[in-house]
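Standup notes
- HV: blocked on the assembly model, inputs below
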Amino acid sequence: QVQLVQSGAEVKKPGASVKVSCKASGYTFIDQYIHWVRQAPGQGPEWIGWINPNSGVTNSAQKFQGRVTLSRDTFIRTAYMELTGLKSDDTAIYYCARDLLSTVVPSGIFGHWGQGTLITISS
Amino acid sequence: DIEMTQSPSSLSAFVGDRVTITCQASHGIRNSLSWYQQTPGKAPKLLISDASNLENGVPSRFSGSGSGTDFSFTISSLQPEDIATYYCQQYYDLPHPTFGGGTKVEIK
């Protein structure tokens, strides 16, 4: 079965960086886009960006551009999200999610989700 | 970005009741809308895509409808295991998918 297993919770200081991993299994890793979505406490989810695991091409929401780097390692079937310049309002659960469809362009539908990684920003 | 407005933000109903949630898009999105269920401490789970297409394994008491700017999500007979927060999400405007604020469903 499809599984996305994320790295563990982290506490970071303001200004630091964090890198979250998302290891995929149960399907052909390069066939479907991986999205990153975050959810601040008590808020709705917010899309961060996507990566094409085959080509490595990425796209991210404007508010994160310049601060987020999406990457992948096809050999170990793992996607990564690195966020720099952390601020208190970056405190959230960060999820990876696989696009529902195996298409050249992403559908934008989040078919399978990782378990989430809590990132806490605190001085 | 397209803004998604859900209502109500929370509701309380009896087991067996019919529950309906609405979602309004700030611009037309055709039928590019999905619904997710999120229980406490868990990741969202996709229930419906393309406004009305039920995902495999999702109980038939869940349904969705709508097109353009106005959408609805219905639980025909509320069950205790349906206690969750439900989110709508548009994927018409890519790469700017956006979610609604959520509707928390509770049992009376």
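- HV (later): unblocked. Chain A touches chain B through 25 residues (CB under 8 Å). The longest strand of chain A covers residues 18-25.
- Next: hand off to the docking folks.
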